[in-house]
Specification:
Blueprint: E1 6-11, E2 15-23, E3 39-48, E4 52-53, E5 56-57, H1 60-78, E6 84-89, E7 95-104, H2 114-124, E8 133-145, E9 148-151, E10 161-172, H3 173-184, E11 189-195, H4 196-204, H5 207-212, E12 214-219, E13 224-230, E14 233-240, H6 244-255, H7 259-269, E15 282-284, E16 295-297, H8 298-322, E17 333-336, H9 345-353, E18 357-359, E19 365-367, H10 378-391, H11 397-405, H12 410-423
Parallel strand pairs: 1-6, 3-19, 6-11, 12-17, 17-18
Antiparallel strand pairs: 1-2, 2-3, 4-5, 7-10, 8-9, 8-10, 12-13, 13-14, 15-16
Helix pairs in contact: 1-3, 3-12, 4-10, 6-7, 6-8, 8-9
Amino acid sequence: MNEDIIVGLDIGSYAVRVAVGQPVAMATGNHPDTGKPVIHIIGAVEVPSEGVNKGGVTNIEDAVSSVSKALEQAERLTGLPMSRVWVGINGTHVSCQESRGVVGVARGDSEIREDDVERAIDAARTVAMPANSEILHVLPRSFTVDGQRGINDPVGMTGIRLEVDALIVQGQTSQIKNLTKCIHRTGIDIEDVVLSILATSDAVITNKQKELGVCVINIGASTTGLIVFEEGDVLYTSVLPIGAAHVTADIAIGLRTSIEVAEKAKLRYASATPEEINKKEEVNLAELGSEEEEIVGRRFIADIASARVQEIFEKVDEELRKVGRSGMLPAGVVLTGGGAKMHGMVEAAKKNLRLPASLGTPIGVTSVVERVNDPSMATAIGLVLWGHHLTAQADDGKLGKFFDKVKGLKDVAGTVGKWFQSLRP
């Protein structure tokens, strides 16, 4: 494998997406936050997903087949062999909880060093969890040195007691192992498993937005992931069991037609803001593949879609209310995912969440691949950027330190990988 390439693999309920990137050193590829060169995307692939629902594997054989097809297409497109991937994990089994780690600095000069920070973060990992759960990430929020709160980076400071307030992101062990098993069965090794919405946010928002307060919402087929940042740190994350596929199902029921026709009707004619559509506008379902000639009002399709979209945003608002940020994020919300492409989604988000809203596109990424600007590719591209940040030797500053502190799932992925390698002839 070309050592320079970084591969992001996003396994969704609707599609499996692969993004392949290479670090670049051109001025046009500089990240707006760091001014440093980031990634040139040389390939982006999407294939229909099977054997996956609500972020979890429901049929291993089908899931392996879908992942294999996506990786094969990516290899053909780029002309490069792939042996290692950064994998996104999603699903309603993912949850988060707050934790605090406390350590003493037993050094003569009382200077806090990197290993003290590591020990504090490790101490935060020791939280009570269900027996079938695994820690995905430990996300440090802020540090306290001898009672002084709100410290972003304590390295080099003097103190005898170091505390860290962290957010523990955890997932169900069986779901994680089923996902990693699917990938290893394709003959691919896993660099690390990353919470999908965390990787997505790395692709579509800047450090300035993270400082001000922002929410990234990834509307997938059967789940909606959200993550809230404030003062540069992750405040909250959640995955809701509702997505764009529910809009399709509602349209199918409302029009008494097939899911295939409903999906086409959603993509072409649905809108999250039905008041903008002329009541006289009509749609012939036969043009969308229906066996019978049937004329329906486009406004009717939009009314059905907007009702479900409103429900999605209401549930997002409930999550924001849990952390006291309902209608109180200066940088607003950034929408990504396939569901965000529906007409009127940005306006619906502004109205229902009472916040500024925009559609998320990759930041600081160069590419000649048109698909890169598709909101549904944001997670795969985010995984490439995540991998780059963790592996780039030149990283420094807050961005680099944040990624250095984030603990991933390498141990779990590695254990499963070794087991599969032992089975290979």
